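Fold this sequence, please.
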Amino acid sequence: MNEDPFGKVDAKGLPPRPESSPHYSTVFEAQLAEGVHYPGQRDGIHFAEANKQLYEAMRNDPVFAKRLEQLFPGLERAVKPGARGAFSEDAPKGLTWRHEANRKGVMQLLPLKQHQAAGPVQHVLHPGQKGGMENWGGKR
């Protein structure tokens, strides 16, 4: 997962991303259902479905779950359903769900610092200064 060919990784096990880089680290991708989750739904609906898919992926693959927990302690707890069975409408702490601008319905979980970083990465994350929520997502 996110292995650097030179063996360098940061404290979270992710390859370093210099400020001049257009690259970012995707922790997980979820696919929303058109006509169900978008368009016309708010971020919280998108995030809850993405959290559900991540939780299910972690439950179905213990090796994947263990690796993610090593990188992001408490991640499974953050995305598991609450007492009434609902999934959180918030991204896990330190991470964010982003609407992939050029792929309808795709939500990507990435480090919040990378999503907020200045420089060339913003042109990749938000081509033409527009993100996926504006392109295909619906409303805020």
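The first strand starts at residue 28 and ends at 31. The chain has six helices and three strands.
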